[in-house]
Design goal:
The complex is a heterodimer of chains A (294) and B (290). Chain A is mainly α. Helix content of chain A is 76%, strand content 1%. In chain A, strands 1-2 form a two-stranded antiparallel ribbon. Chain B has one domain. In chain B, strands 1-2 form a two-stranded antiparallel sheet. Classes of the chains: A mainly alpha (294), B mainly alpha (290). The interface between A and B is large, with 45 and 45 residues. Chain B: It holds the Pfam family BPD_transp_2. Chain B: One of its GO terms (molecular function) is L-leucine transmembrane transporter activity. Chain B: InterPro entries: ABC_transp_permease (IPR001851), BCAA_transport_permease (IPR052157).
Chain lengths: 294, 290
């Protein structure tokens, strides 16, 4: 039972990071290859605060979020201001992720590559559950707000959106900051769940996992990536496969999704009670219409 | 010391240029960054290594084998993974995601099948050094430097003197008009990838001999991508200039400043370049098309 709670906690933490990334990649249409860096910043900030300075857990988490959001300006401000092409931006984030790791490995307060052991275990299942529900709910509101609609407009056609009076830089920057803050929160929770962090945990493997979940789940859907990341974590746990096969599968999933269903599993749809109702209604409608169509 | 650093930098720059050419060729035609190119280079190095150490083919034949093998892999890659997307005119972002998927897939496939061992090429060049104006230069650096530039010059001749080369240059300006004038796009894309793959195989063997052969050696190719961006993606002379500049600067930074910050330096350099000069030194800057 303990083990299952653990898996569910990890899923909850990763959902927070994935939902953040889905705002940036799925809804704003910019690709990031370095989102693990934001998790790392959040994790280290929160862990250092509780470990060395005995700051209360909630405050430390908030500080981690704030730190991630601030650092996201460092990478976001120059690159988004210059309106880089999508793939240029991706390589910039890749470099950013690597740079953050090198910095963490060489600072003295992070204890370098050895990592920080003995962080207090504050992240219990209820804590994770509460935070992930709050973040998912906030993200839903964010997407339905004016900024969310602007973000979707920018994703669909940046030039047209700009002509309609949307400040592209502001929209992109805001969704980067939002996703960085989510990543920071997830990182802080992660550090206090595992009780140990080291820079090697936040490599491109983690970034790949998050990005694959967003692409596979559907760029333009919130529930899609949530389902995808849950599968990505739960299935290897159940099958007990080696870490590397998991990555082979991520690569294959990315290619197959792009070839056969570029909009992802959920497409632009959301999974909700209403959609279940629609599904049944459609089934019923199909059955009644089936005879004619044959 | 200075001259030695310069020559080492130039030879690394030559290898970067070889790899950057592959990125630029594909980008000039299809307008997307082929992140799978690094994995093709890594596989080329593996092919070269196994031909020379397991099959005892000797250096020249293993060298050719690696080039042919990498070219074929690049062709398979484009036919299986990219063609369905190109045919339905998918946006470049989708092609880029696919390329990343291919790269993650192949890299980890090597991990689980071949393993994460580091292989080193058997000694091909004697460890002795050549004295050159009082500094020691390894024969490998010199060979890589000269051979890289011969290969790139040959590519230049191919692109400017042959019919197919002219078609490739035409397609890099406008694919639609080129195909209206009777260029077989499918064949042309295949040839571009074969060329990129062949150069990747060449670079892979040099990298393998210089450093070692291991699954994540494709990481080095991110630098080659940076070189291509600095020179201007899509421009061949740009790729060469970018490669040389990056190779020399990086070597100087790691010798005179610190080797820890070498990679951070390269990535900061590219961000700086992208912000100030998004088109690179010689490239044409294309906004993502509407």
């Amino acid at each position: 039972m303990e083990y299952i709670y653990g898996v569910i906690s990890v899923i909850g933490i990763e959902i927070i990071a994935t939902v953040g990334l889905s705002v940036f990649t799925g809804f704003t249409g910019l690709f990031s290859l370095g989102h693990a860096a934001f998790m790392a910043i959040g994790a280290y900030t929160a862990a250092i605060l509780t470990y060395f300075y005995n700051v209360p857990f909630i405050l430390a988490l908030l500080a981690g979020m704030l730190m991630s959001a601030l650092v996201s300006f460092v990478i976001g401000f120059p690159t988004l201001r210059a309106k880089l092409r999508g793939d240029y931006f991706a390589i910039a984030t890749l470099g950013f992720g690597e740079a953050i790791r090198v910095i963490l490995e060489n600072l003295s307060i992070t204890q370098g590559a050895r990592g920080l052991p003995g962080i207090s275990h504050f992240t219990t299942l209820p804590v994770v559950a509460i935070f992930s529900v709050i973040v998912v709910w906030m993200t839903r509101n964010f997407i339905l707000s004016k900024f969310g609609r602007n973000a979707i407009a920018v994703r669909e056609d940046a030039v047209a959106a700009e002509m309609a009076g949307i400040d592209i830089f502001r929209v992109r920057m805001l969704s980067l900051v939002y996703s960085a803050a989510c990543g920071g929160l997830a990182g802080g929770l992660f550090a206090h769940y595992l009780n140990f962090i080291q820079p090697a945990m936040f490599t491109s493997i983690l970034s790949t996992q998050l990005t694959s979940a967003v692409v596979a789940g559907g760029m333009g859907s919130l529930t899609g990536p949530i389902i995808a990341i849950s599968f990505f974590i739960a299935v290897p746990e159940v099958l007990r496969v080696a870490n590397m096969w998991r990555l082979v599968a991520y690569g294959l999933i990315l290619v197959l999704i792009m070839i056969y269903r570029p909009s992802g599993i959920m497409g632009y749809h959301e999974l909700s009670f209403a959609s279940f109702k629609n599904l049944f209604n459609r089934k019923a409608a199909n059955q009644s219409a089936g005879g004619r169509r044959m | 010391m200075f001259l030695q650093t310069l020559i080492t930098g130039l030879s690394i720059g030559g290898i970067y240029a070889l790899m950057a050419v592959g990125y630029s060729l594909v980008f000039s035609i299809l307008n997307f960054s082929n992140f799978a190119h690094g994995t093709i280079i890594m596989l080329g190095a593996y092919i070269g290594y196994f031909l020379i150490s397991s099959f005892k083919l000797g250096f020249p034949f293993s060298f050719i084998g690696a080039i042919v093998g990498a070219a074929l892999l690049a062709l398979i890659n484009v036919r299986l993974a990219y063609s369905p997307l190109i045919n339905r005119k998918a946006p470049p972002l989708y092609l880029m995601i696919t390329a990343m998927g291919v790269s993650i897939f192949l890299e980890n496939m090597v991990y689980v099948t071949v393993g994460s061992h580091f292989y080193s090429f058997p000694e091909i060049f004697k460890q002795s050094t050549i004295k050159f104006f009082g500094s020691d230069i390894s024969p490998l650096d010199l060979f890589a430097l000269i051979f890289s530039f011969i290969a790139i010059f040959a590519l230049h001749l191919f692109l400017t003197r042959t019919k197919m080369g002219t078609a490739i240059r035409a397609a890099s300006y406008d694919m639609t008009v080129a195909s209206l004038n009777g260029v077989n796009m499918n064949k042309l894309i295949g040839i571009v990838f074969i060329l990129a793959g062949a150069f990747g195989g060449l670079a892979g063997v040099f990298l393998g001999v210089k450093y070692m052969v291991y699954p994540t050696m494709g990481w080095i190719t991110n630098k080659a991508y940076i070189a291509a961006v600095i020179g201007g993606l899509g421009s061949l002379p740009g790729a060469v200039i970018g490669g040389v500049i990056l190779g020399v600067l990086e070597t100087f930074v790691s010798v005179y400043v610190s080797s820890v910050i070498r990679d951070v330096f390269s990535f900061s350099l590219v961000i700086l370049f992208l912000v100030i000069l998004p088109a690179g030194l010689l490239g044409k800057y294309l906004e993502e098309k509407v």
